[in-house]
Amino acid sequence: MKKILFISVFLLISFFSFQVNSDASDNSREEYEKTGRVIWEVNTKEKLVALTFDDGPHPVFTPQILNILAKHDAKATFFVAGNKVVRFPDLLKREVKEGHEIANHTFHHIYGNIPSAKLSSELDETDKIIKKFTGLKPSLYRPVGGFYNDVIINTAIKNGKEVVLWSWDQDSRDWADPPASQIYSNIKKGIKPGNIIIFHDWHGSEYTQTCSTTKALENILEFLDKNGYKCVTVTELLYRSTQIFPESFGIYPSKKGKTSHINLMF
Fold it and tell me: How many CB atoms lie within 10 A of CB 221?
């Protein structure tokens, strides 16, 4: 009798677990891409790529990355965490001053499923702190860890955000701090026009002094330079590849001639 009861309970739990997962199931990448609601990369013949950096700014690594980018006249998009911006606002200001794009990566960097109300709060709080120090409100958002579902995407869109992930074969996986040579090899072997490449400028704690990302970045940019690639912001990549410029991207000049004080981005 106990055995039968145990099996019945197990089957009920399995059934409801399946139902929860089924209800939460999301469209495939291909389905999302058809709607344009999530961006992994863009279709272009121009040798353009977008370098992106998540989780910062970091007091040690972000300045090093900015120095390397400046050396190669490369622009990048920084998906910043609001709680890091509060601590290191001068680095955010430097990113903007040097022509890089700022994007939203939530305030507390919460992984996985996140209720719509909480995500809205995270996005709003981060927008406000970015605007406080730069006067800009980001139009791009990257879900933490690349985790997305209908709730996350719909909430982001309702908050005026474009959801940006990255090219599947252009994940540096630098968060695991592999050897710099491995990061370089991973990026080099799959590079193609329209790629969105993901790195991280936050590693360890604010006291961490070394990481593989900064070591690999110099070689990656040298490779891109030699092969005729130009590093642009995500928004410029979208604009130059599609010639469609969403009105929500109000911090940039649009095709209609709309301008702002941040037109140094182009």
Answer: 19
